[in-house]
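Issue 218. Parser rejects a valid record. Input:
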Amino acid sequence: MRPIPNAVVSVVARTGIRPNMISAIGLALNLSATVSFATGRFASAGVAMLAAGFMDWLDGAVARKQGRASAFGEFLDSSVDCYSDLVLFVGLLVYYARVNRFIYAVLVCVAMAGSVMIGYTRARSDSLVAHGDKEPVGGLDRGFWERPERIGLMILGAFTNRMAPILWLLAIGPNLSVVATILRARRKIHLLTDSQRAQPEKSETAETVRTR
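Output the parser choked on:
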């Protein structure tokens, strides 16, 4: 399976198209999926999301192939992904509001909040721990509810026309993961704080021994 994706990446890279343009195409596809969700055409939304997912994979691969990979490119790609997630939920929110399914409109809002918060809390906890530890973060495992899993579930719900149970999963799972991330970060930060407090005490004890 590996040579086929590599061949695709090579062909696309040779066209000279910039990775940011591929990201923009992916966002446009997700916007079309949003319109499809809003109008109740779930299968069409699933097709558009699949194509957008391919673009999301392709932009990074092409950037590396062309030697254009950069920290800003990764940041921009993550920002575009966040907007893509949000507009998809907006499409579902419009649909359930149109068909007067209040409970599912609420579920969409809760799932949207979880989608935003799971990325924020993980990025923020990593930043805090890394700042305190002066080294790359270890121990804050990512868990199941990353973006690929969430998007995969939405595509499954779109193609099977069974979005309701998917929304329950997306409303509960990511938000539980947010709580777990907060607890893991709390424990890690407390351990770092205790370690930093212990270091001056050890230094003072060592200094006292030397003066004697």
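Fixed in the parser; the record now loads. The chain has two domains: 1-85, 101-212.
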